[in-house]
Amino acid sequence: MTAERRSDLGIAGATLALAAAIAATALTFPAGQQDGDPGAALLPLLLAAVLAVLGATRVLAPLVVRSAPPPPEADGGPEEEPGPVLPVLGMLAVGAVSVWAMSWVGFVLGAALLLVGGALLSGERRWSRIALLAVLVPPVVYALFMWAFELRLPTGPLEAVLL
Amino acid sequence: MSGWLVGLDAVLSPDAILMIVLGVGTGIVVGALPGLTATMAVALLLPVTFTLDPLPGMMLLVGVYGGTLYAGSIPAILLRAPGTPSAAATVIDGYPMTRQGKAGQALSISLVASVVGGLTGTVLLALFAPQLAGVALTFGPPEYFMVSVLALAVIASISAGKLSKGLVSGFLGVAIGLVGMDPIEGFPRFTFGTTELSAGIPFIAVLIGLFGVSEALTQIAGNRRRRGAERPPVGSFSLGRGWLRRLGPATGGSSLMGFLIGLLPGTGGDVASYFAYNETRRWSRKGSFGKGEPAGVASAESANSASTSGSMAPTLVLGIPGDSVTAILIGAITVHGLQPGPQLFEGAPDLVYGTMIGLVLMNLAMLPIGLLGIRLWPRLTAAPTTVLWPTVVLLSLVGAFALRLNLVDVAIALAAGALGFVLTRGGYPLAPMVIGLILGPMAESNLRLSLIISGGSLDWLARPIPIAVMAVIVAAIVLTKLSTRRAMATPAGTAAEETPKDRD
């Protein structure tokens, strides 16, 4: 089973679960108060039915659809499998931690943490380049949003000193 | 004063002109970087427009859109890696030209064809949009319901070879749009008792997550295997002798086809350029297509540029996004308290007519900016992606925060990014999701209003305009399916397998 098919099956299962949850919740919605109005449950129930059918279609896809011929290969090479998931999970974790940290250490330090973590997870190993990125980009973005676009980003002790 | 004069007056302001130039320049830089799509660029710059007036903000985004679409051809021609999905068809003849030492000529053709395609599409938009808006003003809830539901069906149908995946994506977008107060009676749905969700999930945070964060995550996952693409010699930038005679018919015809395909909701520059490329090849009967034929590059590039104007038509006339980029443009308009649709032609002529005139200026600006940097742009294809993608994630999160200065929106953007990554990995297109997110609430409120007006009867379905709209869109589905199937069955389809097409 290919990585795409595994993801496809996971999405199909989640779609079926979502359809069930939407239907169960929508059944508790009140009927419409105006004459002719089917109420707030109409679209959620229709949507739940459609999602259930589509989810089932995706689960059963290989059984009901005769497999298509393999796609032509670029330069005769094999079809590229998607990359590893671990760096992506790492990036999401670094993003969440940085955003949480920004509310008390400020934007510049939080953003520097995100950039360092992101660059390492992307495979960057030149520390000079990582340091340059972490030192230059956050203050530039902060200044740009603060003065050019008049949008106040989270401030912390470092921003207090800089300003 | 007519709408055109009001628009001209507004767009000739220094702010608007500056934003066009900045937008085109930024768009070219972004488009030249492999993997950074037009949708991502426009989504990342959307928060910048919050503090601008509506027209300069729109000019910035439109400039980025046009610039990115043109510059997507640079890595397509040089590296066989389309910078944007719309440039996938450019690879077919552009890359063989590079291998023949004619990369400079291919880049020049791509620039000129993009400008001609963009100008042709804009003239057609300006001719038809005001007339179509006049017709759309007669639309009531039944007509809008039919248009929005069937537009969703068209979008799914063009998810080439992935009908059920396109539909899943579209209806997941509708599901996200359910969160919040119901549009008729204000009953809270799927809010889990929180006040943050009672106004709904912020559409712009979802957009930024889907097209900014998720693309960066996808690229980070693949980054470890892609290292150091070789940059080939570029050669002369001259168009060659008799270029107008050689390339004129292909460019003109493809511009017209690109505009018409762009009119269909959900179709973008990728479908337009494949379709036009195949038709040009069929009509020319030359055996050199696919082996470095300059008319192939001109055809693909002019069609994808013209399709931008085509996709602006349903956006401006009906408030229905023509593609994922115009969905973001709708977000940019609504942030300023305006509702896209035919009423905007009367209510905000400076914005609507100014946008159409701005499209002309944007294309005119692209020629000198593109020519000035034509030797520089190819160097951008070698930018270090290990620092690029974390920066994209940072800018996406800043953009989501800037919307309401709220960290909840940042969390939503991260969650949407994770969802987009998972869907992309499963081969699901993202564009239907964002369009479903816009069309779902529109379809629901218009359906329920139609039922309330008719006392629960479905007689309104038999009115002339709903029947006509249904017939037009069914025809569009059939035509799009046929053209997509034909496009994918040719050597163009070979290139399609290599592109990030489904991400945009």
UniProtKB/TrEMBL annotation, chain A:
Transmembrane segments annotated in the record for this chain: 12-29, 41-65, 85-118, 130-149
Domain DUF1468: 12-154
Name of the protein this chain belongs to: Tripartite tricarboxylate transporter TctB family protein
Keywords linked to the UniProt accession: Membrane, Transmembrane, Transmembrane helix
Pfam families: TctB
Automatic annotation (TrEMBL), chain B:
Entry's transmembrane regions: 16-46, 58-79, 106-129, 144-160, 167-187, 199-217, 351-374, 386-403, 410-440, 460-479
Pfam families to which the protein is assigned, alphabetical: TctA
Domain DUF112: 17-435
Domain of life: Bacteria
Alphabetical UniProt keywords: Membrane, Transmembrane, Transmembrane helix
Keyword presence, NAD: no
Keyword Transmembrane helix: yes
Protein name: Tripartite tricarboxylate transporter permease
Organism: Nocardiopsis coralli
